[in-house]
Write a structure and sequence with these properties.
Blueprint: E1 6-7, H1 17-23, H2 33-49, E2 56-61, H3 64-73, E3 81-86, H4 89-100, E4 104-109, H5 118-126, E5 132-136, E6 138-139, E7 144-145, H6 148-155, E8 161-165, E9 184-188, E10 199-204, H7 206-214, H8 225-233, H9 244-260, H10 262-282, E11 286-287, E12 298-302, H11 309-318, E13 321-322, E14 324-325, E15 334-338, H12 345-361, H13 370-378
Parallel strand pairs: 1-13, 3-4, 3-5, 5-8, 8-9
Antiparallel strand pairs: 2-10, 6-7, 9-10, 11-12, 12-15, 14-15
The structure holds pyridoxal-5'-phosphate.
Pyridoxal-5'-phosphate is lined by residues 10-11, 63-65, 90, 136, 139-140, 165, 167-168, 188, 191.
């Protein structure tokens, strides 16, 4: 048998066979009783995955970015002030979307590979009031995980809505919608949830929906949460056809997550991250990210002098392991490996073996077996 291509990028991530099978079930009516039951269960399971009993779940056609856009335009009107706590490329995306809609935006930007210290957010909040604060749980460009619970502590009791981009974290790292007082958590199917792309996922607090109701309108028709709300409360209704097969697949993905158990799933992500990094470090491929902020869902690894990005990733691809280029100022200096969703030791070992063989093919002096031996120690 030949190995299938292993997609170890920070999304889309490998899709479990059970999820793929459910994606291939016959497409039904969007109001067929069976689908309505699945849609309703999918929304309930989303609540469980983000520990959000008080949140209102929304799952509609779209992407992570689409969910970010919905989050902003449903809670802020032009001219209102948004504070973005940015740790990289995707943090900056919050600001770009805000600018597109005339929302007045200020950013606190961390140096790439680091996170914004809570004290900086505290100082900014002491200087004035904003309508909302938006941040990113794991910035996929830098591999840094933000201290979300500390940001949440600073926002508790304040007027600012707390908007969180969980796209590269949800179901791979702990998120506590209720406990942290999150107002809108946006996420995507194709990252740590391990489902195929195609849906925008939001959890919305009652307070955030009240802000939507207070707006004169929303610069979007299908992006208006109030048009979707009746469907999310009762999926037997119709507003605009939902992506039936993708929602069935997402429900299966949530089922796998809850069967595994959230705490066990987060621990698995931590173990795999640690041993993959041990193995890569033994090859001279070390994290770009500061040690205190390493995410469990992906790694951004620097090339040692003399290893070039294009040839390295090409050698990896020849071994049927796909890793991603680095973004922005890191392009060419590092590569990104996703290790989230429904992957295990097998996928991690294949990735390490491919990295080792690729370096040897490029003429590096590496003793065969180095990476897996180090990874085994890291576990
Ligand atoms: C991938 C990603 C996004 C964008 O999601 P799309 O589905 O590609 O639009 C946003 N934020 C983070 C943190 C991501 O990793």
């Amino acid at each position: 048998m030949t190995d299938p291509v292993l997609t170890m990028i920070p999304g889309p991530t490998p899709v479990h066979p059970d999820i793929l099978r459910s994606l291939s079930l016959p497409t039904t009516s969007h109001v067929a009783p069976g689908f309505v039951t699945t849609y309703r269960r999918c929304l309930e399971r989303l609540r469980a995955v983000v520990r959000g009993k008080r949140g209102l779940p929304f799952v509609v056609a779209g992407s992570g970015t689409g969910a970010m856009e919905m989050a902003l335009i449903n809670t802020l009107s032009p001219g209102e002030r948004l504070l973005v706590v940015s740790q990289g490329y995707f943090g900056d995306r919050w600001a770009q979307i805000a600018e597109t809609f005339g929302i007045s935006c200020e950013s606190i930007r961390a140096e790439w590979g680091r996170t914004v210290p809570p004290s900086e957010l505290e100082a900014r909040l002491a200087g004035g009031e904003y309508a909302a604060v938006a941040t990113t749980h794991v910035d996929t460009s830098t591999g840094a995980a933000a201290p979300l619970s500390q940001y949440a502590g600073l926002l508790a009791g304040r007027r600012e809505l707390f908007l969180v981009d969980g796209v590269c974290a949800t179901a791979g790292m702990d998120e506590r919608f209720d406990e942290w007082g999150v107002d809108v958590l946006v996420t995507g199917a194709q990252k740590a949830l391990g489902a195929p792309p195609g849906v925008a996922i939001l959890m919305v607090s009652a307070r955030a929906l009240d802000r939507r109701r207070a707006l004169a309108g929303v610069p979007g028709y299908t992006a208006d949460l109030l048009r979707w709300l009746p469907i999310m409360e009762n999926p037997a209704g119709y507003f605009s056809t939902p992506p039936v097969n993708e929602i069935v697949a997402l429900d299966t993905a949530f089922g796998l997550i809850l069967d595994e158990g959230l705490d066990e799933r987060f621990a698995r992500h931590r173990r795999l991250a640690r041993s993959l990094r041990e193995g890569m470090a033994a090859l001279g491929l070390r994290p770009f990210t500061e040690a205190a902020s390493l995410a469990d869902t992906l790694s951004v690894l620097r090339y040692p002098a003399g290893v070039e990005d294009g040839p390295f990733r090409q050698e990896m691809a020849l071994r049927k392991v796909i890793v991603a280029a680095a973004l922005g100022p890191l392009a060419g200096q590092a590569f990104r490996v996703g290790h989230m969703g429904n992957i295990g030791v097998g996928e991690m070992a294949r990735t390490l073996a491919a990295a080792e063989a690729s370096l040897i093919a490029l003429g590096r002096d590496v003793v065969p077996g180095t990476a897996l031996a180090a990874a085994a120690r890291g576990r």
